[in-house]
């Protein structure tokens, strides 16, 4: 059964009254093997008209967090504590009727795989028009015309004809555009894009990213963009939240995080990216090891079993026993001193990045 614990005294990570505000969010799933701590004390803010990029490996809690915002978890198997405010309205523990009123209307999601998210039994036009009928009280004809309008907005050729097609008749890029049209049909204030370009070729990927930028300017939506690709996030986000093992380990503006990262995990993500300037024979530098089990995460810093700098911390703190906290505003959850972070990045990490 879903439970809720309010955290009204938790400070804002950015010190502002945000459109979307998440405070000390914990999400746990009951399984036969034990309790999965999928999200463990996450807080962030998002302003209207801004884009927050959430990055991290698979299993870091990115999608779970945003499905929690939308209220898509099974309440019988999920324990949720913390606070989620959307334009001042509490979502954690909200009734299903309240969430249905908000989903597709005030908040919407673009899923990673449109072929599984779209029903094969209904036309593209019907699926785009359905939320418009439900939330706007439109007739079938009005919804049909609105679907044509949205398909045209997202760049589908011959929208008056293609509105009657089924998902299998669309290419991968066209299905993704149709998903975006369905998410935006009611002009939502919050749009969550869950790795919407992962399965697309680079040309279509660029078109989708440009489309999201244009539509954000038109509708003024706040966007949460989930991805594991820092190259993509550099082109779309205003701010970046780096997640690892269900926790936020670094936060800052896109420029700050990509040009002067402070957490060893972020260093690893940047170092593992292929670069055009690299020698073709040069090997990629992956992050050694694997993400921890969320059934039994390691004590202290969750990244310490994979961190190359774990032995550089001295004094009263210990990466293996004491959990570092993420400071408000710009910062990283790491026991390294500010001087150590600057030195290690400049001397050891930056040369790898070219």
UniProtKB/TrEMBL annotation:
GO BP annotations, alphabetical order: peptide transport
UniProt name for this protein: ABC transporter ATP-binding protein
Taxonomy, superkingdom: Bacteria
Subcellular location: Cell membrane
UniProt-listed SUPFAM superfamilies: P-loop containing nucleoside triphosphate hydrolases (SSF52540)
Main location: membrane
One Pfam family linked to the record: ABC_tran
